[in-house]
Every structure is written in C-alpha cells, then in structure tokens.
Amino acid sequence: MIELVAFLGNHGREYQNNRHNAGWLLWERLHITGLISLQKKFKSRFGSIDYQRVKNLLSVEEWQERSASLVGQPVAGLAFLSEHPERIHCMLPETYMNRSGDAVGEAASFFKIPPERILVVHDELELPLGTASVKFSGGLGGHNGLRSIKASLGTADFWRLRIGIGRPEHKDIASYVLSDFSQGEMPILDQVLSQSASALECALVFGPEVLLPAWNKRRLT
After folding, report:
1. Global pTM?
2. CA distance 20 to 96
3. Could you tell me the pLDDT band of residue 221, with boundaries at 50, 70 and 90?
4. What is the pLDDT, as a whole number, of residue 78?
5. What is the mean pLDDT of residues 80-94?
6. Out of 63-72, 99-108, 198-207, least confident range
7. Which of 36, 40, 116, 185 has the smallest number of Cβ neighbours within 10 A?
C-alpha cells in the first residue's frame, strides 16, 4: 500500500512546463487534486486525504472497469485493501529537484512511513515519450531527484511512477530536461498524463501491484 506520494519537479513559473516537471504536471490531472488542500510543510506543498475518500470516488463496478482498461484485461481477484492507511499524503517538494530527498525524508520521518510505502512520480529519460512505467526499487537512471531521495531514505526500495520523456539526440541532458515540452509533444503528453493519473489512483486504492506486469513499460499512445 502507498501512504506517501511525492510528485517531483522544480519550483517556479519558469519551470512549469519543463520535461523535468512531469511529476507536477501529473498532479494537476488527478481527480483527488481538488479534494486536497495544500499547505507549506516539509519543504513542500503538502496535503492529505482519507483513504476512504479516494476509494469512494468510484463505485466498485467503476473501479473494476478502470483497472481492466488500464491493464488490458479484467483483474482477477481485484479487491480493496484490507490493510490500508488511514490517510494518504501527497507532496510537491519545493527544494528543487536535486534536493527532493530533503522534503521526502522529512515527511517520511515525521509520519514514520517506511520506504516501501512511498511512491515517487518523476520524469524518465530512459522511456520514450508516450510511455509510462510502474516499478519498485531498482536503479536511479542518473535522476538527481531519485538520487537525493535514496540518500535521504537510505535505500532505493520505494515505488516509482515513471513518465517517459525520451532522450535527446544531443548530449546536453541538463538543458533538455529543463526545456518545455514542444507543441507537437503536448497531445502525446496529454494522453500519458490522463492514463497515468487513473493508474495512480488505482494504485492508491488497490496497491501498485495491481498494475503489474502490464505497467512494467506501458505504451499509452
């Protein structure tokens, strides 16, 4: 189960539509966003919502239909979590990407949340635009935000929702991730964010395992 979701990005209007801010862009697409009041806390914009309130967004039948649509087939034995957090915490760190762990670690320590109950939403160079992936643990792919979180938590054993942005043909990675999605990329990004938002809410209600293996690397366009 997931108790803390961290949406990675850089703070500031000039970064708003950067590729590196894919996590923040996904936050804006969630149905639960309008139900959570964010405040300045833990070096982030932070808010919480009751698990039951997320669960009650849809009927049982609607959740079944959504999960089947996301993984391409009905999910056998789909059931709400018998053991679930009372509240789910969401945060948008405002430390800038390279210090994301300062915020995530502080919140995790305060609420005593173990790493395996944390999910990080971030951009991913190793996935092409139009794809997304759910994974637990593994390498960091050179992502400075993940590196900071690993250093703060003392482990890489946390969940990730990876939004593919693709690698540039040139080698200037820093300028690429800090540039905006192009006008031609926006329709593709729109589809990715819409489906990834649905997947994340399913993960919160049923556990992220429900999306595997279909979302190991999921083409969404």
Report:
1. 0.95
2. 11
3. confident
4. 82
5. 93
6. 63-72
7. 40
